[in-house]
Amino acid sequence: MANQKIAFASGLYDRFLPLYTKQVVPEGIDLDFTVIDNPREIFDRMAGGLEFDACEMSGTEYITHLATGNSPFVALPVFASRMFRHGFITINTKSGIQTPKDLEGRRLGVQLYTMSAAMWIRGMLQHDHGVDLSGVTWVQGSIDSAGTHGTPTVLPLLKQPDVVNNESDRSLSQLLEDGEIDAILSAQLPTGLGTHPDIARLFSDVRAVETDYYTRTKIFPIMHFVVIRKDVYDANPAVAGALYDAFCKAKDVALERMFYTGALRYMMPFLPDDLDEIDRVFGGDPWPYGIEPNRPTLEAEIQYLVEQDYIAEPMAIEDLFPPGIGA
């Protein structure tokens, strides 16, 4: 019997590269891997038109769909993208913002209010720094150009915050430089950081802050899941296990390559020291898949989604994924 063809779209991450080169082949699957390095394009094409059999997908968009009881997707506990986000809060220093609490009541830029990065930043600010963001006006738009951040098809929030679209002829980066917004909470850094005298990160010692955060909370924010179209899964549930196993093998290959110090695989001169830190902080695996090693992160994500009115009530972590996958 011929292998089942699965059209898959994602960024070409190191942990997915062995699947792209076919060094790792999912059992019973012919994986047609399309590389798209703009995640928003993937999300828009999948949510708007179900263009792929499987793909990288925004965590907030997946869980919000799941909570409706009629999700077009099934997710694997495979995390295409994860990032600490303390370093993605940038301020105009002339706004008087010096501490996280100073963000309260301000005009803050955001690419898309509902995006995973913004959700994680708001949750971290609320729970780790006691910031009340209820009085904030959110200015939503593209970081580098006028207009919107992609063409998203997202479900409405249960309660609408004070969000206005940037309808000017300037980008959020330019609005920040001009002092028309006080800060940006984003998945992308504004162009003025490092070049404009008034633009700076809120947290100056980002690495120390993020290491402390993970050490205390065991939360490593998940940005993107891997999802399968539900009709594809329903027709052949075995595809979920085959893909999960293959993603795990591909990640193991990437980790082995990264930890090989006979030659630097990446253009990171201090990579050997970084690898030592990964051992100290993460116990050797900085990117675990599956449910249990990610339970603190997934529980925080569900909590923040309820608090920020994406979903009405908590759901069990096991209900995010097909039975038996990554348990």
Characterization of this structure:
Helices cover 33% and strands 18% of the residues. The protein has helices at residues 17-20, 39-49, 59-67, 116-129, 172-177, 206-217, 230-235, 238-259, 271-282, 295-307; strands spanning 4-10, 29-35, 54-58, 73-82, 89-92, 107-110, 137-140, 163-165, 183-185, 199-201, 222-229. Helix 4 (116-129) packs across helix 10. The radius of gyration is 20 Å and the shape is globular. 40% of the residues are buried. The model has no long low-confidence stretch (mean pLDDT 96).
Keywords:
single chain, 327 residues, alpha/beta, six-stranded mixed β-sheet, five-stranded mixed β-sheet, 33% helix
Instruction: Classify the secondary structure makeup into a structural class.
Output: alpha/beta
> Can you summarize the main beta sheet?
6 strands, mixed
Any idea what the shape is?
globular
How are the strands of the biggest sheet laid out side by side? Answer: 8-7-6-9-5-10
Helix % is 25-40%
Q: Mean pLDDT score, rounded?
A: 96
Question: What is the radius of gyration?
Answer: 20 Å
Strand content: 15-25%
Question: pLDDT under 50 segments (min length 5)?
Answer: none
SSE pattern, N- to C-terminal:
EHEHEHEEEHEEHEEHEHHHH
Distance between the termini: 29 Å
Q: Give the number of DSSP strands.
A: 11
Q: Tally the helices: what do you get? A: 10
